[in-house]
Amino acid sequence: MKPEEFVKNFYLQKQNILNSAFDSNSEFKSYVATKIETLNLNENETQNLRNIISAILNDSYYSIILGLDGAANIGEANQQVFKIFDEENNLISDCGDLEGPAYEYFHTNKFEAENSKCDFIAELQFNLTRKTPASSGYRPQIIFNFDDFTTSGSQKYIGTDYAFPGDIVNAEINLLSNDYFFEKLKENMGFKFFEGSTQIGTGRIIKIINQKLKKDCR
Prior knowledge:
Elements: H1 3-21, H2 31-37, H3 43-68, E1 84-85, E2 91-93, H4 99-107, H5 110-114, E3 120-126, E4 134-135, E5 141-144, E6 150-157, E7 162-163, E8 168-175, E9 190-195, E10 198-208
Antiparallel strand pairs: 1-2, 3-8, 3-10, 4-7, 5-6, 5-9, 6-8, 9-10
Helix pairs in contact: 1-3, 1-4, 3-4
């Protein structure tokens, strides 16, 4: 097993735990799912709680992996280096092999990027101008910082079904007029999104998936 696969398995386990916590339809509900159900939360409150728990799990798993990698303390112990072997005594990680993949999976949505057919993944920051949450699939108008061309872009939120005013979320973005942006986009490029003339928020490209849109920076 390679370090990246080792980290990926941690990420998938985190997702399994999160999903089971909010699976109210399962015949065998988890203890957490049962306790959440007793709170009688509405849909928005449930989504907010899911987002909070997801963030806690991300931080927890990321901290554990960095601790195993010798890049952070585990508890109050001194920072140490661990060698990790599989059951056949093959070395998985010696030192410093896990931090990079852990950051990609838990902070830049590497798993979603590898399994997506969108144009790009972006970090979105919503203004307080929109008084109600946007649901995944929301399609505002987009203007990139390098151009005044306007198109629409659907937003499929990662790890959540809603984006609330003031939220910062990651999303898969599909552009309506993506042919126009052939070889014009690059990672970390900024954009704004609107409803009519009202700016709803700003975005930043994290990862370009549709390579036809990627600008040649040579």
